[in-house]
């Protein structure tokens, strides 16, 4: 052998030894050999423990990259008896991964787990407890109760703290087993443990269990309170958080509150921001019951602000954002907490946009008569920033400060006026659009201030109008400028000329701008009849005869008739005093705010949503507790709605005018009847302006007996009646249960197979009260449409359902009436209906029923209207029958329907972009009249 060969062999041996080192485990992920399972099987049964350990590592590596190695379960299981701690951990990891797919094989490991639970090493005993807590199989829960009971009483605190967490996991699988074996009582006793970490884990476990059950499993007594406070001093930071969160749910006496606050205050300066925020949560809540006003004032002024500002001053923007969201809640609860620290919320040049926007929100909340001048100077500087979104929000904040503080309104208006002067709005030729948006946004905010303080800034109005009115091309600023012209038509001398220029742009405006322009023109006429007469006539004629938008046309008809009937009544309605702008800086409902403050440092405080709203069905339960539905991201912009509909404040007056319109509409809008002996067709406006016409707000569907879908024999003793209905824009699965078995039934879960429309439950878990043997129960479960779950090949109208109960999984089918898919926004105007009918393909769906039970035209409209089938128009037929036209919307697809009623015979035709959907919709409509 040559010297080169020998040296090469030595290098190969050396490299192999290096690969087996503990830092080179990546080699286990590089194997792609065929027949690897058989090879691993042989290695797992090798006599050498090193070979076995190497094989198990390969198995874990394969499992990690997604390979199926479940065939090796029995071979890996044999190695549970090893004394090698590293190998034992790997085997436990493998068992955890494949426990659900091989539940029977897991039973074989019970004896080994039980034996290891008595191992001399506390690390092994704790490892067993942790592993059995993660094997979430109800069938083997009973086998693990004894090791867990021993773990809760183990002499080593490491095992006890692990067992405490395991109780919470076991409760999630089998609450009955936890109660039967007295684990809750043992868990409560661990709060008196001499080891602080055991106490913290016991508290965390009890708190988690308490959230998932209605029973009072964690009642804090005065003695327990002292033990928790003592343990908090010795806990790790996460243990402290668990105890603080627990204290936040306790309702103390005044004396207890003072004691707890004194013990918790040092946590405010903790290095971990989560501990500090949890401490703030406890203190804020307990201050409500403190009777010592000097202590309350001292804590609020001296102790709480600095920790909040410290967190805010950190270098991590994510933490800053979370802190700001929590501060937003805190200052709504304690309004003067940070008003002297407003400078700390000024935006830095390198702050991310989301932090800047949240800082603006907080600054608006803490603004008052003492600090608004500093804030206004800062906001004025923001007007020259580069980021458009930030600048817009800064200008909007100026408006919020003006609306909130009467004394600040004049200076705020002066700043906004400077923006208009220095940034002439417009997108005309030669003008820089990136500058113009500042003026546009300023004008929009000015309109809000003018509504809050009417007739106070009349000089400002004239100045703004002289700077030009044609350049406002954004929706809201344009509508705001038009509103100003109409509201202050007597002050702005050139208002008629300005409005005339805007009327020339009427066709290019969006709906909101058109509505405002129509209202402003009518206001001009009522205030200056000579200047606005010709203008209002031309615009009303155009809006009522040319425009297709039904909202705009309706408003034009109402104004037309009001002006023609009684100008004084029109003045009283249109020029009536409007509600003033409301201060929205404290926009959370007090009951919602109370819930959110009690969840400071949790996800709920970041989203500004109560915890109940994060889970399916939680919204209903939250409202049932008496809380308001109004939360942060669900607030409606009431101010904007008032901009659009301000002239409709007196609803009764307008409804009366609507009824009169039908008797004196412009002749050009009346459809001429065809000459025939049959009765004249219905006025084309009847379906639009008549509030008394049936079909728009029909009665709710009458509840019917639900059909039997599963008898007791097939349902293992459970009889089920089920059907679908639509209520409030949501499809519900309504179910009645009759328990003829000998088992108490609860914890129902439902799942749907793929179906023709993709109907799926909104969450699997059903809210059904426990049903005793021989008892009955009912439930309504909300549905949702998921296009990914749709399979057009499935039978239409049939939903295959699986219901999980304590009796097992039950399978049945329920019929879904196609009318349940008819949406509430399916109404079409006649012009839309006609143009859509012409544009759709010639292919039509058809149906024919020789004898229908409902032949009266009014009854047909009422019956179909209650099922979201909207009447559009009608006409007589040359043959003596009646043609009725309806519109529906299914999953966003409009369907046009024509029904011809001749005596008791019905012939129908339908059109839609999807002919299959149109046919199903037509059949469903016809069935309602059968």
TrEMBL record:
PANTHER family: ADAPTOR COMPLEX SUBUNIT BETA FAMILY MEMBER. Residues 1-19, 657-674 have a biased composition (Basic residues). Residues 30-57 form a coiled coil. Residues 633-654 have a biased composition (Acidic residues). GO terms for cellular component: clathrin adaptor complex; cytoplasmic vesicle; endomembrane system. Belongs to the adaptor complexes large subunit family. It comes from Lotharella globosa. It is found in: Endomembrane system. This is Beta-adaptin appendage C-terminal subdomain domain-containing protein. Residues 822-930 form the Beta-adaptin appendage C-terminal subdomain domain. Residues 1-30, 624-687 are annotated as: Disordered. The lineage of its organism: Eukaryota, Sar, Rhizaria, Cercozoa, Chlorarachniophyceae.
